[in-house]
Design goal:
Blueprint lengths: L7 H51 L8 E3 L5 E3 H4 L1 H4 L16 H4 L2 H10 L2 E2 L16 E2 L4 H7 L4 E2 L6 E3 L30 E5 L15 E2 L14 E3 L16 E2 L15 E6 L4 E5 H6 L1 E4 L2 E4 L6
Parallel strand pairs: 1-6, 5-14
Antiparallel strand pairs: 1-2, 3-7, 4-5, 7-11, 8-9, 9-10, 11-12, 13-14
Length: 306
């Protein structure tokens, strides 16, 4: 009795077809996975926004402070103040961001956990709550050459919604904040709540605004080991993580551990929640590049609550 079998040529043809299909489909699967992570991040932003709104209901309509200093070095960022309303730490781990638990990013698992809590999402602090943002005020267009190019040489102004809380007698003024209480804004004092950013993707809990301009690049700490992005210079403010093609590296400069003269502005999308509680995924340049006139100033619409 004769037995039939595949020839070597037939097997090679089948293998070649499978390889071609895999080459076509794997990038599609990766893009779908990336999009799914963006959807999770958008949902998490919505949950954090709702927690913040529940907080305002219990605190005379005021948003939480961006940070509360119990003593000189006892720091409670807004993520901790919101936990009774969030009831979850996991939503703070942005799935589109860097792996904050990886020792290569932060030096140790402990530091990774710390920055998972502190450095994935941020609230925009009020200028009045800080000590002047490296003497630049809250300005976009003079912090870096890339910022100047984006504004066409103009100076754009911006502000936030969150105040700072200090323990009685604490005059330390930690990390660029005022050494006294500055209240957050109330929900009713924000003129355009559907446009104002309340919580967004960020390199640090306060967007790093207390020490840098929004178009500045730099490190939070001098040692790369203790930064969420390692030695990469992160832009101060919203970070553009949600982008299928560019991935989590969009929004910071990875060319040098030191400040470079002309790093590029982010080109990806950023996820954030507005004051009215709805979450968005928008091109970073659209959020930071949409301006309006307030008196004699040009201001960034998404960060001009009054």
């Amino acid at each position: 009795m004769k037995k039939s079998a595949f020839t070597l040529i037939e097997l090679l043809v089948v293998i070649a077809i499978i390889a071609i299909l895999a080459a076509i489909l794997f990038p599609v699967f990766a893009q779908a996975k990336r999009a799914a992570k963006g959807t999770v991040a958008l949902s998490d932003a919505k949950e954090m926004g709702l927690a913040q709104i529940m907080y305002t209901n219990d605190y005379d309509d005021q948003f939480s402070p961006v940070v509360e200093f119990e003593t000189a070095w006892a720091v409670q960022p807004w993520e901790y103040l919101q936990q009774p309303y969030m009831k979850s730490w996991s939503i703070l781990l942005d799935p589109t961001g860097p792996d904050a638990q990886a020792s290569t990013q932060t030096g140790s698992a402990t530091n990774g956990q710390q920055f998972a809590l502190y450095g994935m999402w941020g609230m925009p602090p009020r200028l009045a709550a800080t000590q002047g943002n490296s003497n630049l005020g809250y300005t976009f267009g003079q912090g870096s050459a890339a910022g100047k190019a984006m504004t066409g040489g103009q100076i754009w102004h911006y502000d936030g919604i969150a105040g700072v809380a200090n323990a009685p007698g604490d005059t330390f003024g930690w990390a660029g904040y005022q050494p006294y209480n500055v209240p957050s804004l109330s929900t009713t004092s924000v003129s355009s709540p559907a446009d104002q950013v309340m919580i967004g993707q960020a390199p640090e809990f306060d967007f790093l605004w207390a020490g840098d301009a929004a178009d500045q690049f730099g490190l939070l700490f001098g040692s790369c080991t203790f930064n969420l992005y390692g030695c990469d210079n992160v832009i101060s403010g919203l970070v553009a993580r949600a982008n299928d093609n560019d991935g989590p590296t969009v929004g910071f400069n990875s060319l040098s551990p030191f400040f470079t003269p002309n790093p590029a502005m982010p080109t990806g999308r950023t996820i954030y929640c507005c004051v009215d509680g709805h979450a968005k995924s928008s091109p970073w340049r659209q959020v930071m590049g949409t301006t309006e006139t307030a008196g004699a100033q040009t201001v960034i619409k998404a960060f001009w609550p009054n």
